[in-house]
Specification:
Number of strands: 12
CATH architecture: Alpha-Beta Barrel
Strand order of the largest sheet: 3-2-1-12-9-8-7-4
Radius of gyration: 18 Å
Distance between the termini: 53 Å
Shape: globular
Number of domains: 1
Helix content: 25-40%
């Protein structure tokens, strides 16, 4: 039986160039970026009611687009997404007047237990079914497009039925969602699996990319960890260039989530992303 039309909405987004993830610890720095047109905020860190953090409100007041990025919906979980979390997510999107929202292709809880981490899914058709069902449930409450981010994973489940590119593409096709491509995750997964990161770029629908995450990482005991606390390495910047040569995304966003460096180092990272992508610098 054919699936019913998805309530998830897609659209062509304007070109936002290079942006950064808004965090309270660097709010003053982000607010002071003269060329900033795009930022992202963790959806669960924003109250659905009451005042917004001053730095975040300042961005909205000057016309910067702010995208809520979820980390706790558990779209890949076997259970339906939690209604209260969906309601909060939708309210934050409306409050920020966001043109889209984003979440992960992952699960964070099972059987009522919260893992506290984004966990990878087995690349099976059953997992595809679970993600698609939950994205559709989310789409019934969120009135803007949804972008899905494949995560960095330190392990793969045994007996995967689909390649990573097939898994991502099938989820996007069946859910109607857009793609949040984390180029640092592409690098991390390929490095840990001993595969070519360009293979993924050549086999996922780049025309569905809503925006791109760029982040740093570090090797520990033979595995590369997507830390968000280290500087963006040159191989990730090289992948940004490869991506933009294939299909230039509407926006690329620097992710930092701890161990924040001094302003000149953040500026250098933003400038490096701009140079790698061909977009103007925001600093």
């Amino acid at each position: 039986m054919a699936e019913t039309p998805s309530p998830v909405r897609t659209k062509t987004l304007p070109s936002y160039g290079v942006g950064i993830g808004w965090r309270p610890e660097i709010a003053g720095y982000v607010e002071g970026l003269p060329g900033l047109r795009f930022a992202e905020v963790v959806a669960e860190s924003v109250h659905a009611h009451g005042d917004l953090p001053p730095g975040l409100q300042a961005l909205l007041d000057r016309g910067v687009t702010v995208i809520p990025h979820g980390v706790r919906l558990s779209l890949g979980g076997a259970e339906p997404v939690d209604g209260d979390r969906v309601e909060h997510f939708a309210a934050v999107a409306e409050r920020l007047n966001a043109p889209l929202v984003s979440e992960h292709i992952a699960f964070v809880r099972a059987g009522g237990v919260e893992a506290g981490h984004l966990l990878p899914l087995p690349r099976s058709r059953e997992a595809v079914d679970a993600v698609v069902a939950n994205v559709r449930r989310l789409g019934e409450s969120v009135s803007v497009p949804i972008a899905l981010e494949p995560i960095a994973a330190l392990f793969d489940w045994p007996d995967d039925e689909l390649t990573e590119a097939q898994f991502i593409t099938e989820i996007l096709d069946r859910s109607g969602a857009m793609l949040l491509l984390d180029i640092a995750n592409v690098y991390a997964n390929a490095r840990n699996r001993g595969t070519d990161p360009l293979d993924l770029l050549d086999h996922v629908p780049l025309d569905r990319v809503a925006y791109v995450h760029v982040a740093g990482g570090a090797e520990h005991e033979g595995l590369y960890h997507d830390t968000h606390t280290d500087a963006v390495p040159q191989p990730v910047l090289d992948l940004v260039t490869e991506l933009c040569d294939r299909h230039r995304p509407p926006a690329l966003m620097l992710e930092r989530d701890g161990d924040y460096p001094a302003a000149p180092e953040l500026t250098a990272e933003l400038d490096a992303i701009a140079k790698a992508s061909g977009y103007p610098t925001v600093t």
